[in-house]
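Q: Could you fold this chain for me?
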Amino acid sequence: MAGFSRVSGADRGFEKVPISSITVAIGDLLMWDYENEVAILATSAVPPERIAGVAVAAATTAETSVLIQKPSEFDEYVVDTTSAAVTTDNFHRNSLSDEDAGANGADVTDDTGVFMQLGIAGTNKIRGRFVTRQDRAA
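A: Sure. Below is the predicted structure, expressed as structure tokens.
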């Protein structure tokens, strides 16, 4: 399965959020489009405070809402990466390459470094957690 998959953390239920004309797969990360008051597929430019959550259900362009789970501070996820996963990237912050993959390989210290690698989960998979506002203060 592509996208983000929670591997540890408490189950806090789901939230239905509005979407407009997008196809969403399970595991896609969604971000808020404040201007249009909907959730959209996350991009490489998403800062932590615009993360809406991880889709737990698929949706087609005809649907107007999708179920998400909001990540909390200590939830851990596994996600595909654009480069081979290596332990020397542990504790680096990664931006996204798109809504369902991390762009690993460099420590991203600006606002787009939204996912911190904690370990390796396969050749092109990492385990980590979403960065909080306090994490990015460094």
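A (continued): The chain has a mean pLDDT of 91.
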